[in-house]
Amino acid sequence: MTTTEPAIRNRQTAAGDVVLSVRNLHVTFPSEAGLVKAVRGLSFDLLAGETMAIVGESGSGKSVTSLAIMGLHPRNARIAGSITLHGRELVGLSDAEMSSIRGEDLAMIFQDPLSALTPVYTIGDQIVEAIQTHHDVGRTQAWKRAVELLDLVGIPNPQLRVKSFPHEFSGGMRQRAMIAQAIANDPDVIIADEPTTALDVTIQAQVLEVLKKAQLETGAAVIMITHDLGVVAGMSDRVTVMYAGRPVEQGSVDDIFYNPRMPYTIGLLGAVPRLDATNSEPLATLQGNPPTVVDLPPGCPFVPRCPLAHAGCREQEPELAPVGPGHTTACWESDRIRAEKLTSKDIFPAPVIERTVFESIPRDERDTVLSLAGMKKHYPLMKGAVLRRRVGTVYAVDGIDLDLRRGETLGLVGESGCGKSTTLLEILNLHSPTDGKIVVFGKDTSRLNRGETKTMRRDLQVVFQDPMASLDPRMPIFDIIAEPLGVHGWSKGKIETRVMELLKTVGLEESHANRYPQHFSGGQRQRVGIARALALEPELIVLDEPVSALDVSIQAGIINLLEELKQRLTLSYLFVAHDLAVIRHIADRVAVMYLGKIVEIGTVAEVYNRPSHPYTQALLSAIPIPDPQTERTRTRILLRGDLPSPANPPSGCKFRTRCPIFEQLTPEQRTPCLETMPPLDPAPAGAVVALQEAISLSATARGAGDTRVDHLVACYYARPTKVL
Amino acid sequence: MSIDFRISEEPEALDGATAPIAPISKRLSRGQLVRRRFFRNRSAVVGLVIIGVLVVLALFGQYLLPWQFDQRDLGQYYKPPSAQHLFGTTQAGFDVMSRTVRGLGKSLIIGFMVAIIQTTMAALIGSSAAYIGGWYERAWLWVIDLMLVLPSFFLIAIVSQGGPKGQYAWLLLVVLLAAFGWQLSARVVRSLSMSVKEREYVAAARFMGLSTPRLLVRHIVPNIASMLIVDVCLGVGYAILGEAGLSYFGYGVQAPDTSLGTLISEGAQSTTIAPWIFLAPASVLVLLVMCVNALGDGLRDALDPSSLSGGQA
Amino acid sequence: MVKYLLLRIANYALLLFIAVSLAWVLAQTQLHPRQLFEVRNPPIDPQSIENILRAANVSDHVPLWDRYVTWIRGIFLHWDWGTSPGGADVGDEIGRRIWVSFRLVTIGWLLGTFIGVTLGAWTAVRQYRISDRVVTALILILVATPSYVTGEVSKMVATVVNKQVGFQLFLFLGEKSTGTLPSYPLSDVVDRVQHMVLPTLVLTLLGMAGLQRLQRGLMLDALGSDFVRTARAKGLRENKAVMKHALRTALIPTGTYFAFQAATLFVGATFTERIFAFQGMGIYGVDTISKQNINGVVAVTAFGGLCYLVGALLADLMVAFLDPRVRLS
Description:
The complex is a heterotrimer of chains A (724), B (313) and C (329).
Chain A: E1 18-31, E2 34-47, E3 51-55, H1 62-70, E4 78-85, E5 88-89, H2 95-101, E6 106-109, H3 123-134, H4 139-152, H5 158-161, H6 171-182, E7 189-193, H7 201-218, E8 221-226, H8 229-235, E9 238-243, E10 246-252, H9 253-258, H10 263-271, H11 311-315, E11 321-324, E12 327-329, H12 334-339, H13 344-347, E13 368-383, E14 389-405, E15 409-413, H14 420-429, E16 435-440, E17 443-444, H15 450-459, E18 460-463, H16 477-487, H17 492-505, H18 522-534, E19 540-544, H19 552-569, E20 572-577, H20 580-586, E21 589-594, E22 597-603, H21 604-609, H22 614-622, H23 628-633, H24 660-664, H25 667-675, E23 681-682, E24 689-690, H26 691-696, E25 711-713, E26 721-722
Parallel strand pairs in A: 3-8, 3-9, 6-7, 7-8, 15-20, 15-21, 18-19, 19-20, 24-26
Antiparallel strand pairs in A: 1-2, 1-4, 4-5, 9-10, 10-12, 11-12, 13-14, 13-16, 16-17, 21-22, 22-25, 23-25
Chain B: H1 3-9, H2 30-40, H3 42-64, H4 96-132, H5 134-149, H6 152-162, H7 169-179, H8 183-198, H9 200-208, H10 212-248, H11 260-267, H12 275-303
Helix pairs in contact in B: 2-12, 3-4, 3-12, 4-5, 4-7, 4-8, 4-10, 4-11, 4-12, 5-8, 8-10, 9-10, 10-11, 10-12, 11-12
Chain C: H1 2-30, H2 33-38, H3 46-55, H4 64-78, H5 90-125, H6 130-144, H7 147-165, H8 187-223, H9 226-233, H10 238-264, H11 270-275, H12 281-290, H13 294-322, H14 324-327
């Protein structure tokens, strides 16, 4: 790699040999409810230099597995089975022996890079520590190596940044530092536990790229633990799918994605909304929830959710059995699945959702339920605990215009900090914003009297992101759903019938009414949240990331429910999300926000098929698609650096600091970008350019747009491009 | 610990959205979980039992014990513990045990009254400051700072010295101890309420159109209730010690009334010749405060799902 | 930063001024120095009493506002905190007693902090083992034991020991012996040490108990944190990961507490001073109240308030010193 690295060890394994071998691994630990069998018989071989993904939903045992391999499981956990590294048994090694392996041969990257770095030491100190723990290197040399490593993972100004503390780094940079630390000693195996889950998509794309680079440099084998099938498709050679602590399907990435033989895998793949899907048919839904791994009944744990299950499945749990070269599944029905070529549509019938009357009415002829005109929300930036003083202004939302028609879903997308949630809260507050106007149902929110406010509170409802946080844990479901009814003066009897009716509407049982939120799974809680929002028969519902906290298999059910309700009850949705695939699936129109501004807005078909703003293009290209072949051939635009702080936005076009087009421009061409934020104008007409070409083409001023097409873009050099 | 560990430790619903929920017996309600966690904590349970015994003793002691607190056993001066006088007698021939029980009663009353008053104040002031915010909040924070700046012990002593004397003088003491005892709890309540206020279910209720007082009562106070329960508990210990400290210098409960503090102070004068007069009330005081603290700790661990008392098998 | 610090100090000064003024009002209205003289035998003539009280600016016949103005003038113009009703200068008294308290408390405070932190960290690492349970149980007893009980018990034990060894090994009246000292070399130092052992022990136990609880809790939080796991994943042995990563981080709040205590030491040991007959600040506060010495008690509370605020300031500086997250923002 470089000259100062610690003496590189001779690899004990050639490419293609087994580095790490796990056999019949069991991990159990005691808990309140009984013995948790977190991992129940996991076996795999990891080959040198390859990437194996372990996929599963929460509680599937994937993270426990990684800790068990590292020997970092909680002290009260019991490990059975065998884990061998280069043929050396790791189970039962003493802490001293394990410590000499950890960080040297086995390295780990954790999910949350903020809490995973010690806050009181500099990044450099922590990398140096990793080196010096295993190698007798002088401090200057180790320090020099730390700088090199930071350079390798793409930290700008590494000589300077090496002295920074973790809190001075952004999330993406911290995760880069974590990777630098993990590869410091050139390990044979790197375990990455959800390494990008906490990051925004454009940052995720950067970090995954760094991870690939790190792997290339070190030749290490990687175990990639994730729930994101898109990441799996793009990163891994082989895949292990886990369910309820057990591997249910193992094979090459192509086997798993194109030829799955286990209903759970098939359902999971069918349940993910695809960014590149051109139709928006309802998603396959897996009923029910993953089981807890305490007191599992005999038989296959997937039985309660499996439409193919029969009596035999309940009696005995299937073992992993080969179904093809290097491809194994644990399912009694895998032969039938192959013979009948069953797909997710055959196994998990998707609901039929009827279209509303509004579909046939042109958009212009429908009422406007919500419109924002030049809406701004600025916060004072305060500092100090005792004497608070204003040190600046956060331009959270800096002048946006949009309107939402009856029966329509408008998706508002962007990365964290772009102002999408602030927009939503401003609308809900029903006060006047810092500047501009919010008009709900034709009424300006700055001029509402009490009665009007109350009516508006009835007709405008909200569904929040985290279904646990949005339900008071001390109230039974009945009271939660009844609360808005009580506020609006419904009689007791009417409330009772209404609540029961609502429970049924969202797919819950009447008997659930007396239970508390903590008795429900995430998906069920979100259904309660939706029932509460529907209670007063609103016209407009704003949804703040309603599915992003849910597991993939649960998410699809909620998306379908929202879609069905919208059609049945003729609702309008303002749908805030960071997941562009979900938005493509559910929305009619979409607005892309960046640093408090809308940079592109239009119909879903227009924006996804002809993205014209470089940010939209980058965003779309950054999102991994759960399709290995597509992933292998895709071109990505990797944005530089992080989102600038909304307290200190750049002059002119807010995107210019990260804009790939801006970089290519001549100084004269840059002038408009530096001076004023480009206005939202109709997107240029004409044929789309392929992304590959678009990158190499020199920038030209935007062409004229067609005002009749519902597609606006704020860029002086906008050019419709084919990203997907 | 990883996400997986945490999720499997708090068992959730096993079943589908449309499938019926599994029988109740399989799942633990919050109340059951709290109880289970509490009863696993042996010192807290022992504390609870001892407090119970002491309360019964204080309430019915005069009917159970052979001697009344104001009854002299003539000729029995400075007698060490014996079968007749379990804890010995005082200089004037009073039975130490019955006087200790009498003092215990007063200490307990003061402790509970102070704890309840100060926690109520802390809850009202802390949560309203957090919710209303603005100048109202700043004003209270400033008042809290103001009251914390000066050594409250001296201020209480000044008022106690100059205040009215007589049978009900101890009520003034209760008021004073509570008046100088709520500030730190109020700060905790405030920051806790701030975090509760930020939670989405409170936002949801606000967007529903719930009025501020109803929001406070329905959503904020119940969610800080567990902290308040613990605070009452620890407040009892604080108040008993505070009263005893004041009494030790003669600023607490005044004769002929008596409390553990006054008894300790009296006993301290004859530790060399009759240590039992000191040791009896002192050990009861330590025992009581210990039990109250253990109970408070146990309650906190049981009520706080993030505490480490769970999962230890 | 400097401007911020100055603003903060200004706010504290205002806070202190108002707090002390309120304390002054409380003392002036609640204490009755006139009673001291009215009960004298032979009786003193009322005019003389009035003169004495006026001289000390504590006569309730003078309007409260006038007394307040006189008192404020005295402080701001001449740094004169007044006299006791008997005429003794309050400022002198406090100036002398500060150092008595300081000498009494310092060693116990340092020892208590050190032992408490060590025990806390140690028991956290050994959570639920026998050693943790035993220490935690002992600490539970100590926390529930007020210093006057610890003090009295230590005196009782010392008396027995003295009797057993046949000479006065432990001394517990005041800072040093008043009579003539034995003639061996350094006998004055030995005498002082003999006086210091018991009060230091009491204060050590007191400080240790609180800090052990604090440190154990902090340490348990730190031990469960992700960054300790990262350190272990790098290959650090358990002990090193604990010492270098968990303990260092868990020491931040303790450091703050330590800094805060440094300033409040002077008024914090009222009971210990009483039990071991040290003429310190704490006992002065109590005595001034019983002797109706209004100016004295106000001066003590003012001094206590000052200590509190200096402590708060020191605590802030300490956090900034220990925690890079605070330092840089």
